[in-house]
Amino acid sequence: MQAPGTAARGAARRFVARPEFSTLLILVVMFVLTAVLQQNFFEIKSIARNINAFTPLILITMGQAVIILAGGIDLSAGTALSLFTCVLTTVMRKADPWSGALALVVVFAVAMAVGIINGIGIGYLRIPPVIVTFATSFIWLGAALFLRPTPGGEAVEWFKAFYNVGAIEGVTDSFLKRFTDVIPPALLLVVIGCLFWAVVSKTRTGRYIYAVGSSNDSAYESGIDTARVQLRACLVNSTFILLAALFFVGQNQSGDARMGDPLTLRAIAAAVVGGIALTGGRGSVYFALVGALILSFVNKIIFFANISSAYQTLVGGAIVILAIAASQAYTLSNRRAR
Amino acid sequence: MHGVPCRGGSGVKVLEATGIRKRFGGVVALSNGNLACNAGRITGLLGANGSGKSTISKIIAGVYHADAGQIRYKNKVVRYRTPNEARQNGIAMVFQNLSLVPDLTVWQNIVLGGEQSWGPFLNDARAKEIAREILDTLMPGLDLNRMLSELSPGEMQIVEIAKAIAARPKLLILDEPTAALEKAQVNSLFKFLRGLVKNKVAVVFTSHRLWEVMEICDDVTVFRNGENVAQIDFKKDGKDPERIVNHITGVSRTRAGHRARGRCRGRRFLHVKGLRYGETLKDVSFHLRKGEILGIGGLSGQGQHELMLALAGAYPTSTCTATIDGRRIRLNRPATAIRNGMLLVPGDRQLEGLFLKHSLFTNLVFPKLGLPRQPLFTPVARSREECAKAIDVLSIKVQNLETPVRTLSGGNQQKVVIGKWLSFDASVLLLADPAKGVDVGAKRDLYDFIHRQVREKKMSVILYASDNEELIQHCNRLMIMYEGQIVATLEGADITDDAIVATSMRVR
Predict the structure, then answer these.
(1) Does B278 touch chain A (CB under 8 A)?
(2) Which residues contact B39 (CB under 8 A, 6 or more apart)?
(3) Do A221 and B99 touch (CB under 8 A)?
(4) Closest A-chain CA to B122
């Protein structure tokens, strides 16, 4: 004999008590602060600019989240991103549009190789993921420096489509251009990433990633090929990094062996802010995306708050710690009240 | 009577393992293991910890690989390399250490490893149906969508069994499935097993609780020191618990008898009033006498475990008024509890009581390091002497002090946990299910030792045990808990199985 509203209210109360709710709350706070500080925040141009600035971290964070969910961690994500940009800009010749297609094939093969090497180390050789990916990060860096000792290289014109269709020579006032003015290609890349994970998470691999990360032994005893699951998680991660690499080369038309370095740890931090447990098995890839958004807004806030550049990094770190602590305290207080 | 080969009873022989050998490093776990299972029969597997009964189960289920011997399954010689391969061929095992994943839901766990799918995509609707169907008979009240990590140990065990059944096995191996269950759950499990047996499934059932084996099994195979030493068909040979225990221990001993212990006349020295912790402990008050063994009983998961931990100072947010010898004490930090002589022997020794990878010496010496007025450097020679003495007093079977605790048997591990506290002046020893997963012989040693300590040192004990038999045998007084409260206190001759069950279920 429940009143009709009671069930819905119960569900709402349960949702409010979940840790995800505090993450969303922090996102709203950061969003509002940024909107207040950045005067032209709601203009279409600056929305597009923000999306472009946030996209690489979002994609790398989602990939990282998959690895962490599977019980690993990827310290080589940043250098893998650098390597992919170097591969793309080495294969491509500006004059030959077809070289772009060849570059896509080659970089896809490299991305899968990167995933397989990490996956074999983590899954089949059972080396601790921190060690494997720390080691491979130097291999990717070495390979990237071999291809591109200094930033540069060339890219085909149509590669700009991954960044801004309007910037491509020859594309004038078409529908496509107007469309991408409102919805930038970077946003589409993020949507593709989300769809990709939506598909994977509906397969056995998606379920098993959680199982293996939550308890490797139990998963193995349940007949799951845990090594293969970890390998596949590495491949999913590589795919996300590849999407980020396409965006970078589209934006900069060049490759850089060191550009990805700062992203690795930022992505791990973003995943944690988004509620991914570093112990594995707990959290949501979509909320890792939210975590990346929060971290990106923090950067914006610091930039627009006129903090002297000497203190920007320090303040940024402090805000992140405060956000995580607030979220933890919120979750704990709810658990106690229960 | 060593190495008697198994004879099958009635029904079709589903599996026959002969001459199985297995060694782990230098330790021989199985020297000559033989086991036969028949369709439509429940075979009991008995033996002390380390007797090889778990090892042979795991070899049959494909977890370990035999060094020698052969397994015939459905009249074919088989050799499964993974648990999955065995399961696909109809052999499912319920693991003693749960094979469940904490961060998935109940239904996701039940179908784990055997998910239904549409092409590459999971068919979750069908999976939920299957889980619902099985749980409807095993445990109707359980919510399928709950996270496994939120369940009680008993509920987890039920999910584990449901998971094994979801694979529709021809041979079901249950390795101590009832250790975490309360009596009502055991009864519904037995009802379910009888249903399975009617459908021509062969069942292997392992338990330390003899009465359960006597109730559910058609025949038993006893293991000792890596071999099967006896096979008893209950219908032909009758049910004689004495005989089975003698086979298990290998020594014929006269039974101690089930007489309850009398009242304790010691001085009341510990008073706890109004102990509260969240939703699990609601206003618990009691006193404890010098030299008394105070039992805590009731259905599993009624706050007994939390009460033990709260007394050991494990919960910073628990509140109570507690006095020892009239002196107020706070029970919010383990260090304070230890200083007041309240020492916990935790229920899960592997998780909470020991550093498994470290040596016996490290484990025994560790708790002393935190005491006030310790020398800057540990006096190793003197400490080793003390440890050797502790090992002697507890009769821990071990070669030397450097042996990693991980390699000891369950009973010996439990002795090490108690040994940690030997050099302390314990006023209250808190024992949380100390005999769980410990074999019959080691259990007897353990309780003999505890009684000796109580007699000689005038120590008091608070004992929580999931097995009523232990409570009846060892307690002067028994408190029954229900939903975080003490609902009844039994004393002296009133402590009987009937009274415990009746008060636990709130019949009286």
Answers:
(1) yes
(2) B11, B12, B13, B14, B170, B200, B201, B202
(3) yes
(4) A203
Our CA-based measurement puts residue B288 at a distance from the nearest CA of chain A, in whole angstroms, of 30
Q: Which of B93, B138, B151 is nearest to A222 (CA)?
A: B93
Distance of CA A150 to the CA centre of its chain: 26
Cβ of B101 within 8 Å of Cβ of A210? The answer is yes
What is the rounded distance in angstroms from the CA atom of residue A300 to the CA atom of residue B275? 50
Best residue in B110, B112, B277 for a mutation probing chain A (most A CBs within 10 Å): B112
> Domain span at residue A184?
44-307
Q: For residue A328, which phi and psi values (nearest 5 degrees)?
A: -65, -45
- What is the tally of structural domains in chain A? 1
Spell out the residues 6+ positions from residue B241 whose beta carbon is closer than 8 angstroms to its own: B210, B211, B214
B117, B123 contact by CB (below 8 A): yes
Exposed, middle or buried, A223 (CB in 10 Å: 0-12/13-18/19+)? buried
Judged by a CB distance cut-off of 8 A, whether residue B146 touches chain A is no
Which residue shows structure tokens 């995509």? Answer: B121
Q: Is residue A20 part of a domain?
A: no
Q: Tell whether A244 is covered by a domain.
A: yes
Whether residue A289 lies within 8 A of chain B, CB to CB, comes out as no
Q: Decide if B41 touches A, using CB distance below 8 A.
A: no
Cβ–Cβ below 8 Å for A207 and B279: no
Q: Which residues of A touch B84 (CB under 8 A)?
A: 222-225
Residue type, B272: V
Residues of B in contact with A211 (CB under 8 A): 101, 104, 112
Model-wide pTM > 0.90: no
Rounded to the nearest integer, the mean pLDDT of chain A is 89
Question: Counting Cβ atoms within 10 Å, is residue B74 exposed (0-12), middle (13-18) or buried (19+)?
Answer: middle
Establish if A82 belongs to a structural domain: yes
- The answer to whether the Cβ–Cβ distance between A223 and B100 falls below 8 Å is no
Q: How far is B162 from chain A (nearest CA, A)?
A: 13
The Cβ-side half-sphere exposure at B69, using a 13 Å CA radius, reads: 23
CB contact under 8 A, B317 and A214: no
Query: What's the CA gap between A158 and A144, in Å, rounded?
Result: 23
B99 touching A (Cβ < 8 Å): yes
Question: Which of A222, A225, A229, A335 to mutate against chain B (most B CBs within 10 Å)?
Answer: A222
A281–B contact, CB cutoff 8 A: yes
Mention every residue, 6+ apart, whose C-beta is less than 8 A from residue B405: B354, B355, B356, B357, B358, B359, B360, B363, B413, B416
Which residue among B100, B122, B278 sits closest to A218, beta carbon to beta carbon?
B100
Q: How confident is the model over A138-158, as pLDDT tens digits?
A: 999 999 999 999 999 889 988
- A12 domain residue, yes or no: no
| Structure tokens, B416 | 């090490």
CATH code, A100: 1.10.3470
Tell me whether B377 touches chain A (CB under 8 Å). Answer: no
Q: How far apart are CA B311 and CA B426, in angstroms?
A: 14
Q: One digit per residue, pLDDT tens: chain A, 338 residues?
A: 444 556 677 777 777 777 788 889 889 999 999 999 888 888 888 888 899 999 999 999 999 999 999 999 999 999 999 999 999 999 999 899 999 999 999 999 999 999 999 999 999 999 999 999 999 999 999 999 999 999 998 899 889 888 888 777 777 667 777 777 778 899 999 999 999 999 999 999 999 999 999 999 889 878 889 999 999 999 999 999 999 999 999 999 999 999 999 999 999 999 999 989 888 898 999 999 999 999 999 988 888 888 888 887 888 888 888 878 887 787 777 665 44
For B67, residues 6+ apart whose C-beta sits below 8 A from its C-beta are B21, B22, B23
Single-letter residue type at B260: A
Could you tell me if A185 lies within 8 Å of chain B, comparing CB atoms? no
